[in-house]
Design goal:
Layout (H helix, E strand, L loop, with lengths): L7 E6 L19 H13 L4 E4 L7 E2 L2 E2 L10 H9 L6 E7 L5 H14 L4 E6 L4 H4 L10 H19 L10 E3 L6 E3 L12 E4 L4 H10 L2 E2 L6 H17 L8 E2 L2 E6 L3 H15 L2 H12 L33 H15 L3 H8 L4 E4 L1 H13 L5 E5 L8 H13 L13 H5 L17
Parallel strand pairs: 1-2, 1-14, 2-5, 5-6, 6-9, 9-10, 10-11, 12-13, 12-14
Antiparallel strand pairs: 3-4, 7-8
Helix pairs in contact: 2-3, 3-5, 9-11, 12-13
């Protein structure tokens, strides 16, 4: 049998983006625990490494109304993961928690409590928060300037590690920092053996984010952007790891990925387009182009032509941050494309506002996954379904068995393994690898 590198999968329960199609008759609740339970148990039946939840500290607003893609009433991330620890046995439990607005003693206690209760299955996706509307929830208000976000994140991670390594209640060895980016004083809180700490995940793609990841993290959550671009990203991460004295496999690269299956390639492509159209509602399409134009475009027909007015230098709506360096160049590109192919505002949004995806038959998708991991474009993927909680069921039932047959994926969980041990699955030596087939 051809030997392949072992593929890692995480299961992302989406929350604050257009990925999930809530209007679908099979869509479940974003609030009821049954959705989270069913989602986690499907992922565990597929022997995935971990469930991944986002965090929303404040609901976004557009023109004085709540943003249509945010979920009012979604339970606290650590609370959901703690409940999932009781109804799962093996799968990791990773939560996104802001290093900008949380405080070290509290976040260390929450995460280590989850880690102890789940027998070592906890993980922290460390994020920096850039928007001022989130800061309104907190005493300090506003938000940190760009140059302070990663230094504070580093200080938070360092503080958490120190707290986890200190005996609970030991006032002779206080963990403290006063002034600067942190101001706290605490003892250790939850007992743990040395080194039994939550796994660290990082989602930054910027140079600062990459440096933070190679310094601290076990997993980096990234974009894929195509095989060659992903290989270049992985190579850059490996170089940065070497500079820190770490091996390439010390940090797993797990890009976000949507998988759409069909009995034929044509059927899969038709289904993928249908899903994208459902994900980008008329309101979402207008919201998306507003971010680029920097102005209110609510009077425009989403199924009509692109606006003829020029972009302005302003935020389109509270809570959105325009990330495009040159919006005028992007608008010109869109106008040229729209004229050439007779595309509407929504057509453009459907093309632009979508995640990376693998589309094809189960066999084609399995080939593509193996090729990506064998080719060092990724170590695995963070899977995002378009339906909650059943969105990953097709992958578990139709793709994973093929990967198992080809020796590229585990057939059972290692006995009593914690999350860090799951992520350390031994890969085949590179010299033993053979081409994995063609991509879908």
């Amino acid at each position: 049998m051809t030997q392949h590198r072992q593929i890692h999968f995480a299961a992302h329960f989406p929350g604050v983006n257009q990925q999930t199609v809530w209007s679908h008759p099979e869509a479940g609740s974003q609030i009821e625990f049954e959705s989270f339970r069913r989602f986690a148990q499907i992922a565990e039946a597929g022997f995935m490494d971990y469930v991944f939840l986002a965090e929303g500290l404040r609901l976004r607003e557009q023109k004085g109304k709540l943003h249509e893609l945010d979920v009012a009433g979604r339970p606290n991330t650590v609370g959901v993961l703690s409940a999932l620890a009781a109804v799962t046995e093996h799968i990791g439990l990773v939560g996104t928690l802001s290093a900008t607005f949380n405080e070290p003693a509290d976040i260390a206690r929450q995460l280590q409590t989850l880690n102890v209760l789940s027998n070592g299955r906890a993980g922290w996706n460390v994020v920096t928060t850039s928007n001022e509307f989130t800061g309104a929830n907190f005493r300090r208000g506003f938000y940190l300037p760009l140059e302070e976000r990663y230094p504070r994140a580093q200080a938070m991670v360092d503080a958490a590690r120190r707290i986890w390594g200190t005996k609970p209640g030991d006032r002779e060895h206080l963990v403290a920092e006063h002034g600067g980016l942190l101001d706290f004083e605490t003892t250790g809180t939850v007992p743990s053996a040395p080194g039994e700490y939550p796994v660290f995940v990082q989602a930054g793609m910027s140079p600062q984010g990459r440096d933070f990841a190679v310094t601290n993290s076990d997993i980096i959550f990234s974009h894929y952007g195509g095989f060659e671009a992903a290989r270049a990203f992985r190579a850059d991460i490996s170089e940065r790891l070497a500079a820190k004295g770490r091996a390439a496999d010390d940090l797993k690269v797990m890009p976000a990925m949507t998988i759409v299956l069909g009995d034929t390639e044509v059927e899969a492509k038709e289904r993928a387009l249908e899903i994208r159209r459902a994900q980008v509602s008329p309101q979402t399409a207008i919201s998306y182009v507003e971010q680029v134009w920097g102005r209110d475009l609510s009077d425009y027909d989403p199924d009509g032509p692109l606006p003829t007015v020029e972009p302005i230098e302003a935020k389109a709506a509270e809570g959105w941050v325009n990330t495009y360096d040159d919006r005028f160049e992007r608008v010109a590109k869109w106008r040229e494309l729209a004229e050439r192919e007779n595309l509407s505002i929504r057509d453009i949004a459907v093309r632009e506002y979508t995640r990376d995806e693998f589309v094809g038959t189960p066999e084609q998708v399995a080939d593509t996954l193996i090729q990506a991991v064998d080719g060092r474009a990724a170590d695995g993927f963070t899977l995002v379904g378009h339906l909650v909680p059943e969105g990953l069921k097709d992958i578990v039932e139709r793709v994973i068995p093929i990967l198992q047959e080809r020796g590229a994926y585990r057939t059972e969980y290692p006995q009593n393994a914690n999350l860090r041990e799951l992520m350390d699955t031994t890969a085949a030596p590179l010299e033993q690898l053979e081409p994995a087939g063609t991509s879908a």
